[in-house]
């Protein structure tokens, strides 16, 4: 585990990654995470999904999430509802809620995801 310390990070320092369950150029940078800063209570990522990219439908047992759409548009599935999401929309996902996001727009879909606590355990 990385030592816990206060840091300032530049977004260019973190490589883009495609995590398991993410498809079609659904890329993320783990800016604050156990492996990058030693954080234990939150995971903070910026993600960019190219058109047609998505994360598969999934659920977190204990984690809460916030998605903040920075640019583009797509479809957010939350529970039994699917909604268009656009720039400046903020989505709160409670534990136990099945969800997915996909880029159904014409350009890149860029958003922040904050997850707490870090693990679902």
Describe it:
With 121 residues, this protein is mainly beta. The chain has a single domain, classed as Jelly Rolls (Sandwich). The chain has 1 helix and 10 strands; from the N terminus they run ββαββββββββ. The protein has one helix spanning 34-37, and strands at 22-23, 26-32, 43-49, 54-55, 64-71, 73-78, 81-86, 90-93, 99-102, 109-116. The strands form 3 sheets. A 5-stranded antiparallel beta sheet has the order 2-3-10-5-8. It has a 3-stranded antiparallel beta sheet with strand order 7-6-9, with no helix packed on it. Strands 1-4 form a two-stranded antiparallel ribbon. A hairpin with a 2-residue loop joins strand 6 (73-78) and strand 7. The chain is globular. 21% of the residues are buried. The mean pLDDT is 94. It comes from Actibacterium pelagium. InterPro entries: Cupin_2 (IPR013096), GPI/OXD (IPR051610), RmlC-like_jellyroll (IPR014710), RmlC_Cupin_sf (IPR011051). This is Cupin type-2 domain-containing protein.
Keywords:
globular; metal ion binding; 121 residues; 1 helix; 45% strand; Cupin_2; mainly beta; Jelly Rolls; five-stranded antiparallel sheet
């Amino acid at each position: 585990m990385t030592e816990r310390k206060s840091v300032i990070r530049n977004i260019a320092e973190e490589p883009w990654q495609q995590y398991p369950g993410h498809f079609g150029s659904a890329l993320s940078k783990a800016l604050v995470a156990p492996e990058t800063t030693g954080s234990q209570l939150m995971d903070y990522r910026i993600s960019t999904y190219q058109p047609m990219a998505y994360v598969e439908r999934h659920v977190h047992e204990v984690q809460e999430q916030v998605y903040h759409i920075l640019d583009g548009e797509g479809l957010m599935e939350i529970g039994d509802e699917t909604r268009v999401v656009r720039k400046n929309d903020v989505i709160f996902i409670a534990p136990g809620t099945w969800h997915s996001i996909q880029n159904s727009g014409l350009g890149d879909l860029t958003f922040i995801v904050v997850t707490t606590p870090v693990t679902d355990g």
